[in-house]
Design a protein that fits this description.
alpha+beta; Dna Ligase, domain 1; 5-stranded mixed beta sheet; 11 strands; about 40% helix
Length: about 290
């Protein structure tokens, strides 16, 4: 049996151990309440008495969720990835934003259905917003990027065309070396030099009509002429762009009416070099050997 000192400072009792346990459960007394065991002159708190050790241990136990081994909420990796992909949209012209938007929505649904096991809804929402923003800006990025891509493609085609004319000129020089320094005949120049060219694609300009076998013409005034007797090889036309035709040969009248490569025409000269000549510069070309 015990005497106790209540919250009002008055002494009560005697009460039994079972009664104190009941009052502890009801909250009428606490483990700090002063008690005096029957036959003792010492006052002690309930919490130090061995009779109430089980109740004290139960009171100090961790919350049920942790007691059963549950871990704190884990931040959703999808939410983090969504935000990262959304930010990367700045460097990918918004392309990663589409994936970021989808992952953000999936992450938000999983967090909602995780019953507290997942966190990071704020990250998921941020990922959705940022990704969506860059997706909305995608047409703007495209409008800025497409002209640059078109310009790069056109430049690449121009370079390809220049290389083609260089190879044609080299093939004609090789032919001349094997035929007493004479340039090929005009009537079948494609036929006779094609053995000196690695690919038939050399005869075709990337910007020309791909239904035609050849997009270049041979300066007919050089047909059968000795290479060493050309007085101005650096300014005399050897090959030039034309509308197309196998074994096509002639001079200025066969030149393209409009350039394939912006405002320039690709022209190869007797000495082997190639130039991109402007429309006004065509008047300075030399056709006579």
């Amino acid at each position: 049996m015990y005497k106790i000192i209540g919250a009002d400072g008055k002494e009560y009792g005697p009460v039994s151990t079972e009664q104190l346990r009941q009052w502890l459960g009801e909250g009428r007394v606490s483990f700090q309440t002063k008690v005096q065991a029957e036959g003792s002159s010492n006052w002690q708190t309930i919490g130090v008495l061995p009779e109430f050790a089980a109740e004290l241990a139960a009171n100090a136990a961790p919350p049920p969720s942790l007691a059963h081994g549950a871990m704190p909420p884990k931040t959703s990796g999808l939410a983090i990835t969504s935000l990262i992909l959304g930010i990367l949209g700045l460097f990918s012209c918004g392309l990663t934003g589409l994936v970021g938007l989808v992952l953000g929505i999936v992450a938000l649904v999983k967090i909602k259905n995780s019953q507290g096991r997942l966190s990071g809804s704020g990250l998921a929402i941020a990922g959705i917003v940022v990704s969506g923003l860059f997706l909305l800006m995608l047409p703007i990025f495209a409008a800025m990027l497409l002209p640059a891509l078109a310009s790069a493609k056109e430049r690449a085609q121009s370079i390809n065309c220049v290389n083609n004319v260089k190879q044609l000129g080299l093939a004609a020089i090789i032919y001349a070396d094997d035929h007493n320094d004479m340039f090929p005949p005009a009537a079948n120049w494609c036929d006779v030099i094609q053995t000196n060219i690695g690919s038939s694609k050399v005869f075709q300009c990337p910007s020309g009509d791909q239904g035609r076998r050849c997009h270049y013409a041979f300066n007919a005034r050089l047909a059968g002429r000795e290479t060493k007797k050309i007085t101005n090889p650096a300014t005399t036309v050897l090959f030039f762009e034309a509308d197309g035709g196998w074994n096509l040969s002639g001079d200025r009248e066969l030149m393209l009416k409009a350039p394939r490569h912006r405002h320039v025409f690709v022209v190869g000269f007797v000495d082997g070099h190639v130039e991109m000549v402007s429309e006004s510069g065509l008047n300075n070309l030399r056709w006579e050997p």
